[in-house]
Amino acid sequence: MKEYMYMSLATALVSVFALCFTACDDDEKDMSCPVITDTGIVANPINCQVYHRGEVIPFRYVFTDNMELGNYNIEIHSNHDHHTHSTEAVECEEHEHHEEVTPTNPWIYNQSFSIPAGSQSFSAQVDIPIPQDIDPGDYHFMIRVTDQAGNQEIKSVAIEIEE
Fold it and tell me: Hey, CA dihedral for 14, 16, 21, 23, is it positive or negative?
């Protein structure tokens, strides 16, 4: 009988230790999304900025994460159909005169960039040339940053490309 009690007590203690180690491991998992911020810089682009074909869009944002950043992606696509995204992309007042059109040569830009390993903060700077031959009009500028755990944050701003 004593042997049974010792075995039960030993099993209970092992179970408690196992639960403790499992909970401790869970605390180390990165469940927080990275952050796209303009802290300490002049962010660009921001909603409703106007650019011209042949110019350069100077992309400037800061990314932060509680553990470790992974990479980021910049996507620019036509908004000639005036669709929306669930972030900051809005139809800007000065853009309201644009009618919905079917573009013949819309600009599509999609580029991923790495962030140095171990970074919890990264100041992203990319100069993006605007092609001369694209359709002018409304575009969405999408920023996606992913941390090493796979958590992702998205920011979308509305921009206009003029002739």
Answer: positive
108-162 tens-digit pLDDT: 999 999 999 999 999 999 999 999 999 999 999 999 999 999 999 999 999 999 9
The domain spans of the chain are 1-30, 35-162
Q: Nearest to residue 139, comparing CAs of 158, 154, 162? A: 158
Q: Using CA of residue 60, residue 77, residue 87, residue 80, what is the dihedral sign?
A: positive
pLDDT tens digit sequence for 48-72: 999 999 999 999 999 999 999 999 9
Q: How large is the C-alpha radius of gyration of the chain?
A: 24
Q: Which CATH architecture has domain 35-162?
A: Sandwich (2.60)
